[in-house]
Write a structure and sequence with these properties.
Structural class: alpha+beta
Oligomer: single chain
Number of domains: 2
Helix content: 40-55%
CATH architecture of the largest domain: 3-Layer(aba) Sandwich
Shape: globular
Number of strands: 12
Number of helices: 8
Radius of gyration: 22 Å
């Protein structure tokens, strides 16, 4: 039997005059049992900086901290009340307020998954895919490129090695005395076997370029992105196998993002690629 849910999208709108907003979370209530579930983006959420300016990004962490405090208290005390109080609490939370945190108009859905899984699905739909219809790998590449530009490291461009047998495109690369490249790889495939196959595919390509002396050890950085937190355990196991497969190469394999921000090891790799003389401010 399907469960009846009401839900709303949590939005961050730092500048009232523009009315622009970014989706940062979701909240839902199980109407029959009065249980509330929610998921909010991390306090360090690099896409907020991309969407707004530094002033908006600076305000975001404080606004989210207050929201988490409010929702945490409600979740803590709600179980001692009846189902009517749960839906009433939801209605009060999503009521329009004069704040940088806004909520969409409540929506209704019937679904099979339990509340926690339903919330995770909403988060994946409205937040993780909020900024673009691009694939996760394209989105990760774009986020890394923007992070590099903010550090005055925008000289990383797309370079394609057009070998007579295998052509390989590096979307973030710099050629000085040798090629240095960042290769983002996303492993959000639905089938666990596809995750393993994708890692093997890239290992074979990079090994070929190494054998042909087209690339050299330590000069490629592989930035990975795994399955979503709500993905099946088999997908996460396959992702671990994928990282082991790539880890046999003479390149560093690092997470693309850490706590919602681009991994600083990627920034350090880019800086090491050119030395201090190319940095301009």
């Amino acid at each position: 039997m399907k469960t009846l849910y009401r839900y709303a999208i949590i939005r961050f709108s730092p500048f009232a005059e523009t009315e622009e907003f970014a989706n940062i979370g979701v909240i839902a209530v199980d109407v029959a049992h009065g249980q509330i579930g929610y998921q909010i983006a991390p306090k360090r959420f690099s896409r907020i900086r991309h969407f707004f300016d530094e002033q908006g990004y600076a305000a975001y962490a404080g606004a989210v901290a207050l929201l988490e405090l409010e929702l945490g208290r409600i979740s803590e005390f709600l179980p001692s009340y009846g189902s009517w109080d749960g839906e009433q609490a939801f209605n009060e939370i999503v009521t329009r307020r004069e704040s940088s945190i806004r909520f969409s108009e409540p929506r209704v859905a019937q679904a099979d998954p339990p509340l926690s899984h339903f919330v995770a699905q909403l988060y994946g739909r409205f937040v993780k895919r909020d900024f673009s219809t691009d694939t996760p790998e394209v989105a990760l590449t774009r986020d890394i490129r923007k992070a590099l530009k903010r550090r005055h490291l925008g000289f990383f461009k797309q370079i394609e090695i057009d070998d007579e047998v295998v052509s390989v495109r590096f979307p973030l690369a710099h050629r000085g005395d040798r090629l240095r490249a960042i290769r983002p790889l996303s492993f959000g495939h639905k089938r666990p076997m596809a995750i393993v196959d994708y890692a093997a595919h890239w290992r074979k390509r990079l090994e070929y370029l190494l054998d042909r002396n087209q690339i050299t050890p330590r000069d490629i950085l592989i930035a990975t992105q795994g399955p979503t937190p709500d993905a099946e355990s088999a997908a996460h196991h396959a992702y671990r196998l994928a990282k082991e497969e790539l880890g046999d190469l003479p390149f560093d394999v690092v997470p693309g993002e850490v706590d919602g921000d681009i991994n600083e090891r990627i920034i350090a790799f880019a800086r090491d690629s050119i030395g201090p003389t190319r940095l301009t401010f």
